[in-house]
Design a protein that fits this description.
Shape of chain B: globular
Distance between the termini of chain B: 54 Å
Strand content of chain A: 25-35%
Largest sheet of chain B: 5 strands, parallel
Largest sheet of chain A: 5 strands, antiparallel
CATH class of the largest domain in chain B: Alpha Beta
Radius of gyration of chain A: 18 Å
Order of helices and strands of chain A: EEHEEEEHEEEHEHEEHEHEEEHEHH
Radius of gyration of chain B: 23 Å
Bound molecules: flavin-adenine dinucleotide, iron/sulfur cluster, FE2/S2 (inorganic) cluster
CATH class of the largest domain in chain A: Alpha Beta
Oligomer: heterodimer
CATH topology of the largest domain in chain B: FAD/NAD(P)-binding domain
Strand order of the largest sheet of chain A: 5-6-2-1-7
Number of domains of chain B: 3
CATH topology of the largest domain in chain A: Rossmann fold
Structural class of chain B: alpha/beta
CATH architecture of the largest domain in chain A: 3-Layer(aba) Sandwich
CATH superfamily of the largest domain in chain A: Nucleotide-binding domain of ferredoxin-NADP reductase (FNR) module
CATH superfamily of the largest domain in chain B: FAD/NAD(P)-binding domain
Number of helices of chain B: 19
Strand order of the largest sheet of chain B: 3-2-1-4-16
Strand content of chain B: 15-25%
Amino acid sequence: MHTILLKEILTERTWHMRFAAPLIARKCQAGQFFMLRIHENGERIPLTIANWDREAGTIDIFFQEIGATTELLASMKEGDSILDVVGPLGNPTHVEKLDGTFVMVGGGFGIAAGYPVARAFKEAGNRVIAVLGAKTRSLLICEDLLKGVCDEVLVATNDGSYGTQGMVSDVLQGLLDGGEKIVLVYPVGPPIMMKVISQMTMPLKLKTIVSLNSVMVDGTGMCGSCRVTVAGRTRFVCSEGIDFDGHEVNWDEMMSRQKMYSRQEKEALEHYHEHGGCQGGCR
Amino acid sequence: MKKELTVQQRCAIPRHEMPHQDPAERVRNFNEVALGWDRETAMEEAERCLLCKNPQCVTNCPAEIDIPGFVKKIAEGDFLDAARILRASSALPAVCGRVCPQENQCELTCVMGKKFKSVAIGRLERFASDYALFEEQLPTPAIAPPTGKKVAVVGAGPAGITVAGDLVKLGHDVTLYEALHEPGGVLLYGIPEFRLPKEIVRLELEVIQQLGVKLVTNFVVGRTASVDELLEEFDAVFLGNGAGAPSFLNIPGENLNGVYSASEYLTRCNLMKAYQFPHFTTPVATGKKVAVLGGGNVAMDAVRMSLRLDADEATILYRRSRKEMPARIEEIENAEEEGVKFHYLVNPVRFLGNETGWVTGVECLRMELGEPDASGRRRPIPIKGSEFVVDVDMVVVAIGQSANPIVASTATGVETNERGYFIADEDGRTTKPGVCAGGDIVTGAATVILAIGAGKKAARALHEYLSGSGSWPTVSPSR
Ligand SMILES: Cc1cc2nc3c(=O)[nH]c(=O)nc-3n(C[C@H](O)[C@H](O)[C@H](O)COP(=O)(O)OP(=O)(O)OC[C@H]3O[C@@H](n4cnc5c(N)ncnc54)[C@H](O)[C@@H]3O)c2cc1C
Ligand SMILES: Cc1cc2nc3c(=O)[nH]c(=O)nc-3n(C[C@H](O)[C@H](O)[C@H](O)COP(=O)(O)OP(=O)(O)OC[C@H]3O[C@@H](n4cnc5c(N)ncnc54)[C@H](O)[C@@H]3O)c2cc1C
Ligand code: SF4
Ligand code: SF4
Ligand code: FES
């Protein structure tokens, strides 16, 4: 059992949670994720390890309420417990001293997922810039967290309520036009954003590493649910990734596979609303 | 006391059949298909055994079960003692009684089989072990005094469970690490409820925990801790992580939605109980026209599962003929009775999909059988221009498993072969002293009983090593 030690709302439907997971906290590194299952009847869902405290044995997550499992998670209180957590999973992001600037481009919950990676690149002695995107100012998360580990934090909002009006890609273009010597771009967030950024950097031969969020079951390479075509080959995101070269990912396939369970996800959410998550009791 | 039967009288008793749920009924539920025996049937079947002095059946049981010993107890009506004999050799008798390919193991070499039909050893094993799980409890066996040695067992499948059970009885301090949230390995996430009720697996696992095995679930060796890290804390390690990574055909369209590996399909259904969606939150596709590629036990399980999940038409596509199919005959017959269609001598060449990215068809080539290949089976050869399309809305690829590198990649000094399987000697010793391996991660995907057999040998080798009497031989990477 893993006790929830802290829960706070960041913006509408986006939460920050901390819970006890000493085995994960002991080992995890930037770029890794873990899986949790809330109760006996629950689904295993992958979440990025956004922060950790090795001494205290705790990990932090930032998540968005989008379906049955994340809504149930959001309804839990400090002191409640999660049945299963397992990890750290996936390969740590390859971090090194670069010959130029590292730019993390974050959208949605991806901002939180990009945080430990930005921090690791900073700790490796790099110049680090974060480009954060949100629909509107009130939906922006983790700005202060990133300010603590980046040389510069730039924001784009669709409605112009904060930072540059437009997309994260516009801000990235601005940096490039301004002569910033960028050598590695790390977009993390909705696949469509990662696709757009990858397509933008491809003709520039600007190295772009993406962390993919495909649908997973075990998270250890045993099922193939998370598979996606990269450079013409089928790769398992959970065991061989989750980082891949953004220029080599078959994005259309990746996005289509993410929608495989759209119908059932709706049904699960309706069921959750009727039965309060069916925590073993509804049968 | 009943009178001893003569050999003639024993031979005159016909082998007893196993009652099954009616096919039309059972495709609409997930309950066990084979219903088991009552006491009278079991005792009568047990009377068929000649109680050979030099029992040939035992020579072909990797778990080294005293078969005439336990069968005699059943004939005498002492079911609990029969179960005790079974348990003395195997940690999973109720499982083996159900899924062991007996026809190729003990029952193949049973002398009764030469002139008559072999004794139904597997069914008797199931009967006696179920008795001890459900009717009357066996007392916990004696455990050797603590040796002070600590052993980590990686993977709670049949191989790991066997090693853990055997070593704990010898007085070692055993911790069993399992990556998933529940132990059991393929018994849990692969083989469906209708063939092996999960209750059985759970109860057998309770037994080894009562013996003192510490179970740690949600622990992925290679990620949560490496093998090298385990060796800092433990005196010896057993690697029984199975061959869990699914193989694909690598043909166009394989990543379309609706195309599953058997591992994913069965894991969603069995481990995550997707057949009870939405009461259980994990979803699974429920195709109306399902094709399963492959001809082994895994393919049979997947195709029969799809029927229970509402498929109107479920078809096996297999590249050789029925004779070459590796699945157990019993499972093929069960599938046929349930209405599964079989297309033999066809080879899928690509998957077709619609505009939403969902699979709609499997394009196949017809094959003919040529000369025997290395496995002794006749090699299928494609017939040019014979392409045709099987309409589907779901596909399960069940063409085999391969080694998952997560464990091996973090174990220094433990060598693997070119396919990623651990190199080990007859007794499971790897190239690193104090580390044994066994089961599917050494042999490639095989059977429950072979994994158990490998576990027994490895437990002996590790015990010898831990007792200080066994030096570690040089294990050469020859296989
Ligand atoms: C490596 C990885 C890291 C992630 N990190 C985070 C994170 O830090 N914060 C966060 O908010 N979300 C993260 N996600 C996404 C998160 O896993 C999904 O939001 C969650 O599974 C949705 O579950 P649900 O039942 O609430 O919604 P559902 O209604 O089931 O699904 C909503 C969407 O989530 C995706 N999804 C559903 N099931 C799974 C699954 N088993 N595995 C992966 N995706 C699934 C689907 O694409 C679907 O469109 C991550 C995903 C991956 C693969
Ligand atoms: C669908 C299906 C049907 C089958 N039917 C039959 C049958 O009827 N009869 C028969 O005899 N055989 C059958 N088999 C084969 C049989 O199940 C296997 O040969 C047997 O289970 C192998 O045992 P094992 O202990 O080596 O590995 P597994 O059963 O695979 O167990 C390995 C365990 O290790 C765990 N693990 C893996 N990696 C790690 C890690 N890094 N850290 C911690 N734990 C880890 C896994 O989660 C798993 O629990 C079937 C197989 C399948 C898939
Ligand atoms: S374990 Fe398998 S081989 Fe051994 S007696 Fe039982 S059924 Fe036969
Ligand atoms: S070989 Fe057959 S008849 Fe002889 S002891 Fe074994 S089961 Fe009985
Ligand atoms: S989630 Fe099962 S292989 Fe990646």
